[in-house]
Amino acid sequence: MNTQTVKNIDWANLGFGYIKTDYRFVSNFKDGKWDEGALITDENIVMNECACVLQYAQTCFEGMKAYRTVDNKVVCFRPDLNAKRMADSCSYLEMPVFPEDRFVDAVVETVKKNIDYVPPYGSGASLYIRPYMFGINPVMGVKPASEFQFRIFTSPVGPYFKKGLKPITLRIPDFDRAAPHGSGHIKAGLNYAMSLHPIVDAHRQGFNENMYLDSATRTKVEETGGANIIFVTGDNTVVTPKSSTILPSITRRSLMYVAEHYLGLKTEEREVPFAEVKDFKECAVCGTAAVLSPVGKVVDHGKEILFPSGMEKPGEITQKLYELLTGIQLGTVKAPDGWIKVIQE
Ligand code: PLP
Ligand code: COI
Q1: Which of 71, 93, 228, 340 has its CA 20 to 30 A from that of 173?
Q2: Stretch 230-246: mean pLDDT
């Protein structure tokens, strides 16, 4: 058991924002290879004005969390899957893969160096871990960089949606998130740039997030700007959209497993016509940042779909899934083999 203290932060009132911690991991790719990397204290990056990331957005990232468990260990959740997804993102963006085993080791070392920022068990907060990579050398013609930087920083965070487990409202936007044969399935910074105007517009109109439809036909549910979506049918089947243009959420894949193996529910990953949404009894968005946030209402150009679970509390299955997922992460529920990586005993 570790005897580490935690920083004096008001954990209960922490939002989802950047707070500088003491160390970050940095490794540089030059002359065709990654250097050994180092943990440094300087949070600033100096780069050329014509760096590829600044001109042509050659960058991708990952998001994961470290938790303090009920028995005061520090752990993180399925980092091998983030390493794999980052490798997929890098390949698509013509960037060199940071080896997956080194990715996991670097995450562990970065969290260890910032261990006092891992919030106490029961606080509801966690230490967000942000690995990312970008093309750093100057590039004028449209082509990939040849030099890259891989970094990991951490930041203590609270809930992504201020309302916590209070249901949120999604709206159907007039904007698309990802093109049919584009980059929707990877975690490229450019996907999030595309979502900035739609999210600001949604907030301006009083909605929490956008529920994007497939851009080819605008008839099928995809995901939100930063989370996948799950639905529950009247007979308790957990349904999630299948699409080649959404990000394969690790939280969603885990929730589907938990629904099937811990709750004994039927699960379906399939196309979800928007026309079917009114028939579901529960809806929630899921992701590392969002965890599992209930959706009470979807608004399609003035037409409201209010789920039977309502705007006051999560639906019954959403609540159970939330408790199981967070229980697995915090050590109160037995995890499937290989899901929990212990960072500090
Ligand atoms: N979809 C998008 C667009 C995201 O940005 C995220 C966040 O990472 C997710 C889904 C959820 O993925 P994960 O559960 O792996 O964090
Ligand atoms: C995450 O859940 O880790 C995300 O990256 C979502 C959002 C903060 C972009």
Answers
A1: 93
A2: 98
Which region, left, alpha or beta, applies to residue 207 given φ > 0 means left and ψ of -120 to 50 means alpha?
Answer: beta
Position 1 scores a pLDDT of 46
Q: How many residues does the chain have?
A: 345
The alpha carbon of 246 and the centre of ligand 2 are apart by a number of angstroms equal to 13
pLDDT digits (tens, 9 = 90+) for 255-283: 999 999 999 999 999 999 999 999 999 99
Average of per-residue pLDDT across 76-90: 98
The pTM of the full predicted model, rounded to 2 decimals, is 0.96
The predicted structure's pLDDT at residue 5: 62
Say how far apart CA 234 and CA 241 lie, in whole Å: 17
Q: Is 319 helix (H, G, I), strand (E, B) or coil?
A: helix
Q: How many CB atoms lie within 10 A of CB 339?
A: 17
Ligand 2 and 156: CB distance under 6 A: no
Residue 64: beta bridge partners? 129
**For the packed helices 79-92 and 250-261, what is the interaxial angle rounded to 10 degrees?**
140
Long-range contacts of 139-143 (CB under 8 A, 24+ apart): 139/50, 139/51, 139/52, 139/55, 139/56, 140/50, 140/55, 142/56
Proximal ligand: closest to the CA of 187: 1
Query: Is ligand 1 within 6 A of the CB of residue 227?
Result: yes
Q: Is 187 a catalytic residue?
A: yes
| pLDDT tens profile 123-157 | 999 999 999 999 999 999 999 999 999 999 999 99
Least confident of 7-16, 31-40, 97-106, 258-267: 7-16
Domains of the chain, start order: 11-159 (3.30.470.10), 168-330 (3.20.10.10)
Residue 301 Rama label (left phi>0; alpha psi -120 to 50; beta)? left
Phi/psi at 41 (5° precision): -100, -20
